[in-house]
Automatic annotation (TrEMBL):
TM regions (residue ranges): none
Upper lineage: Bacteria, Bacillati, Bacillota, Bacilli, Bacillales
Source organism: Paenibacillus validus
Any Pfam family hit: NAGPA
Name used for this protein in its record: Phosphodiester glycosidase family protein
Domain Phosphodiester glycosidase per the UniProt entry, residue ranges: 174-357
Top-rank taxon: Bacteria
Keywords: Glycosidase, Hydrolase
Gene Ontology molecular function terms on file: hydrolase activity, acting on glycosyl bonds
């Protein structure tokens, strides 16, 4: 055997197992599957998209937050400016509201000597006291601006029917800031008691019933809405319509709707001059009490009712009434007697007194 044949035999022997295996596989028709490439899970893609969406929203939130902050700051600045402007307008409104009152006070003061001697003010009342002089008499004027129904009342002497006390005693007993004598009285010679004259009301109730007006007697008081009321009343229902809170009786009527009323003849000359106490109301419902000095009740000193009509009318008083006078005239302010009582300088014990409270 030559060398080439030997080589071929060796090759056949070496390749025989592989050729046999290929033949077997071809005969058996077996298929071989190779592994597929591994795919990335779908969840990773969804997570990436969610994260990207969250980042986008976060960026938008930052932008919205910045815009919101800017908007809030602008509104805050606008509110601050509006609040300042509202405060400024409020002060202007208050000043405008107070201006008519200030003008009114100035006009009244100019006709009463131009100077306020004393004053008192609170949430309940404003009081201004003036001293003025006329050719024949000297007077004191107490201007009263009632803000609530707690600012003024009327009391019986010693808080009982038949009792009496001076205006100063009543002021001290009640702790009032001021006081003025009120209506007339009638004395019981047997008992020494002093009774309010005719129709009298305290605390919205009649002290001893209603009595129709006679001999020019006039009821003078305050209504529940703090308005001065007065006049002649012949039926209780006519007075009740005015809703009186308190009041007393004396004579006569001085002014009605700014017009002078006839003075009864006996009051023109008996006495002609005397210490007087009168009360009137302005168109704005503020009250004015005038008390005049006089050294006795014989008619030689003090003021006439006609002179007081002129004075009240010049001040712009709408309605006015005469209260008890002579030795009864009393004006108290801050615990001091302002006028000069005609009963030898002593205050007279009275059945009724008007009191004013801060």
């Amino acid at each position: 055997m030559n060398p080439i044949q030997q080589i071929n035999r060796v090759m056949l022997l070496a390749l025989a197992p592989f050729l046999g295996a290929l033949g077997f596989l071809a005969a058996a028709q077996l298929s071989v599957e190779f592994p597929k490439p591994v795919e990335r899970p779908q969840v990773d893609l969804q997570l990436r998209e969610s994260l990207q969406s969250a980042l986008t929203k976060l960026d938008r939130s930052k932008e919205d937050a910045a815009l919101t902050r800017t908007t809030v700051e602008k509104y805050f600045q606008f509110y601050a400016k509006s609040a300042d402007e509202a405060a400024r307008l409020s002060k202007l409104a208050e000043a405008a509201a107070e201006r008519p009152a200030a003008i009114f006070d100035t006009r009244v003061a100019s006709k009463l000597g131009g100077k306020v001697n004393r004053s008192a003010s609170s949430a309940n009342i404003d009081l201004k006291l003036y001293t003025f002089s006329e050719e024949r008499y000297k007077g004191y004027a107490l201007k009263v601006n009632l803000k609530t129904d707690k600012g003024m009342t009327m009391v019986l002497g010693g808080d009982k029917v038949g009792g009496s006390e001076t205006t100063l005693q009543a002021v001290r007993r009640y702790g009032a800031v001021a006081g003025v004598n009120a209506g007339g009285f009638a004395d019981d010679a047997k008992t020494g008691k002093r009774y309010p004259l005719s129709t009298t009301m305290v605390g919205g109730k009649y002290v001893y019933g209603f009595e129709p007006s006679f001999e020019d007697l006039t009821f003078i008081g305050l209504s529940t809405d703090r308005k001065l009321i007065g006049g002649k009343f012949y039926k209780q229902e006519d007075l009740d319509k005015l809703k009186p809170s308190f009041g007393s009786t004396f004579v006569p009527i001085l002014l009605q709707n700014g017009k002078k009323q006839p003075i009864p003849p006996q009051w023109v000359s008996s006495p002609a001059r005397a210490p007087r106490t009168v009360v009137g109301s302005f168109k704005n419902d503020q009250l004015l009490f005038i008390v005049t000095d006089g050294y006795d009740e014989r008619g030689n000193s003090g003021a006439t009712l006609a002179e007081l009509q002129d004075k009240l009318q010049s001040l712009g008083i709408k309605d006015a009434y005469n209260l008890d006078g002579g030795g009864s005239s009393s004006l108290i302010f801050d615990g001091q007697v302002i006028n000069h009582p005609s009963d030898n300088g002593k205050l007279r014990p009275l059945a009724t007194n008007f009191l004013f409270f801060k």
